[in-house]
Structure formats: C-alpha cells, structure tokens
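Milestone M4 deliverable, item 7.
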Amino acid sequence: MGRKKLSFMMRLQHYSLLMLFCTFLGWNPNLLAAKNAVDVPASSDDKAVNEQKLAQLKQEIKKVKSLLTANKSRYDSAADALKNIELAVAESSQTLRDLKQKLEQSQNKIEDLEKQQAVLLQDKEKQQSALAQQIRSAYGNGNEEYLKLLLNQMDPAEFARMLSYFRYLNDARTAEIKQLSVTLQKLNDLREKLTQENLNLSELTLKAQKQVEHLVSQQQERQKIVTLWQAKVQSTDKQLRNLLSDEKELQSLIDVLRKAIEVFFPKETLKGLKKLKGKLMWPVAGRLLHRYGSERYRDSMNWHGVMLKAKEGAPVHSISTGRVVFSDWLRGYGLLTMIDHGEGYLSLYGHNQSLVKQVGDWVEPGEVIAYVGDTGGLSSPSLYFEIRHDKSTENPAIWCR
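Output delivered:
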C-alpha cells in the first residue's frame, strides 16, 4: 500500500511539474490535450496549414531558451562574457560568409555578362560586314539596274520576277539594319549592367575587408576571455563541478525538449534512425580526438559522444532527416544544434562557429546545419557529436561509417 501511494505521489508530482512547465512557457495544457486528441497528420493538400503550424511550433519551442536564463546563478561574469563574445563572433562569421557568397555570385554574374558581351560583339561584326557588303553592292549599281528594268521591254512575267528580287534585297538591307540596331542596344545595356555589377563587387569587397578586420578584433577579444575563463576553472574540483553541471544542464534541456516534442510533433512524421544503423555519414570529416565511452576526467566522467578535430569553418552536415529543436549557445557546448529524428532519436552538434538552422527548421541528410568552430571555451576548432535514443547515449562509431 505504501509503495502504491508513493508511486501515485511521484506520478502526481511529475504531472504537476509538466503542467507548471507548460504554464511557464505560455502553453495551455487543456488546449494541447484537446489538440492532440483530434489532430491527425496533415496531408500534402494541407500545405498551408502545415506551414502555419510549423511557424507556431517554432515560436513555442523558442520559449524553451527561457529555461537557460532561469539558471543564471551559476553563470559568473567570465561565462557571460564568453557567451556574449562567442555569439558576436558567430554573427560576424556568418556575415562574412554571406558577403563571400555574394562576392562569388557577383563575380559569376560579371563573367556571364562578359560572355554575353563577347557573343554580341561577334554578332555586331558579322552584321556590320553583311550590311556593308550590301551597301557597296547597291552603291556600285546605283539606280541603273532598276532603270534598265523599267525601260527594257521584257516579258511582264520576267519584269515581275525581277521587281520582286529588288524588293527582297531592299527588305534584307532593312532587316540587317534593324538587327544591328537591336544588337547595339543590347551591347549598350550590357555595358551598363557590367558597370553597375563592378561597382557592386567593389562595395562588397570593401565590406568583406572591414568585416574581416572586425572579426579578427573580436577573435582576439575572445582569446583574452577564454584565457580568463580557463584560469577560473583551473582547480581540479572546479573543473569537475563545471563538467558535471554542464552535463546536468544538457540533460535537463533534453528532457524539456522531449516533452515539447511529444506534445507538438506528430509521431508519424519522423521514423527514427533504427534502420540506418551503420549506414549514416559522419557530420564532418575530421580526426577523432575523443572516443565514445573513453575517460573524460580522471575516472569521474566518460565521453557521451565523440570529439572530431576539423578545419575551422568546415560545414557540419545533418546525419539524417529531422527537425531542429534547439539552436543556441549552451555552457560547456558553445553554439549547439539538436535535431529530433523521431522515435526518441536525437543528434547533437556542439562547439560550432555559427549555426545555419533555426528551431523548427526541417533538415535532410547531408544538409549543412552549422560550421565547425571552437565556441564554449575550446582552444582549437572541433565538433562535439552525440547520438541519443530515449534516455541513453549511443556510440556514434556504430551508427556512422
């Protein structure tokens, strides 16, 4: 009887905490329950409804971040400074990446315009040559041929044929003149576009140079803060406490996200990773620094994922289809992306330089979701990669080939 009562009290406490969490995020538990009772997976005909629901889910899931701010008590000034500078560096890195992409697009556009210009110049030369030949021929003959035709008392049928021939020549000259005029106008338009695109390229190049200088300055500032951060956690006890706290916060965040996934995301949408075991691609090409299950800190902690050393700025790819459920900075993991693959499977990608996807975004296998970095206080660029199923972590080496 005592055990039953205890079990009932634990379930009641769990239910109360869930209701409190929903209220904290601004969700109505009764409405959500009713919604789950009547909702069915949307068909392809309900695309507009799906998009509206996705937008709503995106806004609701973002509220999960408020849980992080509720735990500010252990975020000392060094941690706050590290978070702020790394978010600023991430924004600058993404801005620079966007500028480089625009520069490349502008250069490609200029190359394309120059090719068009070369073709038009060739057309212009051919048209001018043909027209010049016709003008020389007409000038050489003058009006004599036409006068002879009028004065010659030839057969009427022959006269009509010759008259049509002269009209054809005249029409051909007129057409050549019109075509040359069109070509010259196109060339003029192209020159204007090229001039504008070259100006655009110059402006983008200048912006990129300034952004590089700004980013270098931010990275130097970050290095100072990282040095301060590492000095603060130098003692053995504090290092262990921080690692355990980081791990606990990650687990709490995952628990909260799982509840949100159960409430909002239809189970039929994603099929998990079970059938893909041993077939998944690694999220980034790199050297394995720390294996799953190996010692992380003096027999007190083991690695729940793997650390892959990779080139800074290298693209990080999603291992499978899924939906982004977290995309933000988290202490101990830096800029972190979490993807729900359905059926209780999650993949985590930490210490990124910048994040590409936002909460609620769908991703496909191999799609770029972030770029390799060293956020979270690392001294060199690496990717932390983890796979979870329900409450257990999985060895990525068994899943990826």
